[in-house]
C-alpha cells in the first residue's frame, strides 16, 4: 500500500458512523432469524444464517474502526483488514442462500468457487493492494455467480430472487460512487449508504427464505 486516501476528518467520521450503525442492526436481525428457526431440525440452515451475521457484522466493524483510526500504522493495518473482510462477507452473503435453499451440487459449487475467489482475492490484495481495483473485483466476484442462474433459480421464490437482485444493484451503484471518491468529498460515504441499503435488502431476502423454508423442515 503506497498511501492512504486523503479524506477530511468529517468525511471519515461520516464513513465510520454509516457502517457502525449497521453492526447492532446486523446482530439483531441475524439473532431474530436464528431464533425463528431454532426449534426446527435444520442445523445447516441455522449455521448459514449465523455465518452471514458474523461476516456482515465483522465487515461493518472493520470498516468503522478503519475510518475512525487516526494513527497511521493502525489506519493502514485496518485498511487491509477492511478490504479483506469484503471478500469474506461476499462469500458469507451467499452462504445462507445456499444452505437454506440450494443444498445441492450447484449450491455447494457456488460456495466452493466463492471461497476460492476469496482466498485468491485476499492474497492479491495483500501483495498488490494498489494494483487490484477493489470495486471491480468485488462486483465480478458477486455477479459472476449469475452464470449458473438457470441451474439454481428453481430453488428460490421469485420475491427472494428479486430482493437478492435489489441488494446486488445497490452494491453496484455504491461501487460507482466508490470509483468517484477521489473526485468529490463524501463519495465514499454515499458508497457506504448504498452498502447499508443493499444489506437491508439482503436481510429481507433472507427473512423470506427463512419463513418459506421453515415450512419444509421438521420440528
UniProtKB/TrEMBL annotation:
Q: What is its main location?
A: membrane
Q: Which residues cross the membrane?
A: 12-35, 47-68, 80-101, 108-127, 133-149, 161-180, 186-207
- Which UniProt keywords are listed? Membrane, Metal-binding, Transmembrane, Transmembrane helix, Zinc
Q: Does the keyword Disulfide bond apply?
A: no
Membrane topology reported for the UniProt record: Multi-pass membrane protein
Q: Could you confirm whether the keyword Cell wall biogenesis/degradation appears in this record?
A: no
- One Pfam family matching this protein: HlyIII
What is the name attached to this protein's record?
Answer: Haemolysin-III related family protein
